[in-house]
Amino acid sequence: MPDTQPQETEKRYDPKDSTLKFVNRPDEITGDNDESRLRAEMSCGHAVDPNSLTAWCRSLMDQGQYVFKCPALKNGTTQKCDAVWSYDEVRRVALLTDEEKAHFEETLAVLAAAEYCEFKQCPGCKTCVEREDLTNLCVLCTICTAMKGNLYQFCWQCLKEWKGAAPRSDRCDNEGCTNQQLNTLRSCKLVSLPETMINECPQIRACPTCGNLVEHDRTGCKNIRCNRCQVEFCFACLETTAACQNTRSDYFGLCAKPVAPRQTSIPVWRKN
């Protein structure tokens, strides 16, 4: 995780911004009641200032949390609201700068990846086993190995005792061992994104950061935010939104690169 943070700047709402609901109430994060400052209402109904919202969410990330929750107290109680704010809402209402967005998104992805683990039930002893190497389908069960007195490995994909050479990332030698998600990526149909210039684009994509399968709802721009790692990427060229935009592409036009074909492998979410 980066040690440096983007420098904070004083931010103020544009009173003409029709995408926000402005309210005449104190900031319910800090209690500030400066009448010269506009405050916006979050989805939970509490009022915030873009600076306090940014600072609060950054403090949560500094504590290793990647879920943003409202700290305001419910009316007339000492109970916290604790409503969950999506990153998209925070990004919009906090008026995050490009530097802040990059910092937030990288930090959120790292925090989520650190917590994300894969567990499946061993076909031998039925206990839950974690797969530490996400690039290898051959997984060792230490309990079965100790009980049987010899090495016991099983396939993470078909959940049968491992057959064949290892390590492998595609399949073992058991009959019928196939990756259904990969089959979906390879066989999905091609679609257009009606509000963009993108045509003949695979309907299903594996997130280039974590491998999560996502589908574009075919409204709005060509970018999509992964609901697992929270990284935003271009559904057409599979670059991150920031990288795609750096090539002078726009949100609705063609990318500098051609539309990426159907994916034939699933990216592995690296834990750093």
Strand content: 5-15%
- On the 0 to 100 scale, the average pLDDT is 89
Strand order of the largest sheet: 1-2-3
Supply the number of helical segments.
Answer: 6
Classification by helices and strands = alpha+beta
Counting DSSP E segments of at least 2 residues, the number of strands comes to 15
Largest sheet: 3 strands, antiparallel
Task: Please tell me about this protein's structure.
Helices cover 22% and strands 14% of the residues. By secondary structure, it is an alpha+beta fold. The strands form seven sheets. The chain has a three-stranded antiparallel β-sheet. A two-stranded antiparallel sheet has the order 4-5. A hairpin with a 6-residue loop joins strand 6 (119-121) and strand 7 (128-130). The protein is flat and about 75 Å long. Mean pLDDT is 89; it is low at 1-7.
